[in-house]
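Hey, can you fold this one?
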Amino acid sequence: MSDDFDPELFEELRERWRRGAIVAAPPLGTLEPLLAGDVVPLPEPGSAEYRRASEIGESLLRSGQVAALVVAGGAGTRFGGAVKALVEVVPGKTFLDLKLLDASRTSARVGRLVPVALMTSFLTAEGIAEHLRRHPPDVPVLLFRQAKLPRLSPDGEVFREPSGEPSCAPSGHGDVFRALRESGVGARLWEARVRHLYFSNVDNLAATLDPVVLGMHAEGGAAMTVEVTPRRAPDGRLDAGAAPVRMAGQLQLVEKVDPEAHPTISTNNIAFRLEPLLATAIPVPFRAVGKSIEGVPVVQFEQVTAEASALRTPEGVPLLSVRFLEVPRGDPDRSRFEPVKAPQDLEPVAARIRRLLSL
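Sure. Predicted structure:
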């Protein structure tokens, strides 16, 4: 195993799982009504609020205070096992290429390079590094890795590959807080005068570096500004996803709610203030996620970024204050939520991305 595996952490997690202290989802407390201002809409183009937010966001970009943070740790199991970031979306352009293109075009517009912090995993790091060597980006790219952890059999023993080696999985995108600190990438960005990170999944190409979103984040003052969008997809289905709620007076994201009662879900596009991420550890809890490997049930330990919104200090204060920004979904020109989870999602998304990025 490589140096992104922590055996002491794994043994601690396995012992806690055996005691029932690590579960599939957090226990749901009493949900309270959202208050006015908990979820604010993305301003309409042409409005005074839109212009103000755009000016603030453009100023942040021009002064070098923004970096993109792209999560690219997953293998595209539904795409034949290829590295998801390196799946071709349009001819000659992969998911990763298009994310870097957004940063490159933003850099050209504002006259300042926008760095990209790119979180990989043991599944994707080598392929992504080779791709970047063959296709040098126009913007600085800082690579860092999330951890990997062995999977368990239902009886708590390490699940093994046919070779006898432990079968491992990435620790989830919620490991970004630890990895950003321990890799030194967060400190390097801070030294370069970056103050805000725009976090998104590599397969959501609609999550662009929009100055309006960045301006709304900066103006709102929260440590993390989460984009939420209608739960109901354009085809009518109700998607799964964490919903903005209040519990014990704290505004946060919660999974496993009644989808009919919670009409918005997190897009996993999040603007963060960098300073609080470096000031202290963000101890996102681990969850026990059931999977199947060639028909055999296994358990793997993962962290979810959204659960940082539920953390509190010993004094009961939210560790990371949160604000929610509702963004469009059905409008093909304004949607900021276009994830590609399966090959059949690719063609319609590619058509909209061509228009969005003028390809």
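The CA atoms of residues 75 and 83 lie 5 Å apart. Let me know if you want another pass with a different chain boundary.
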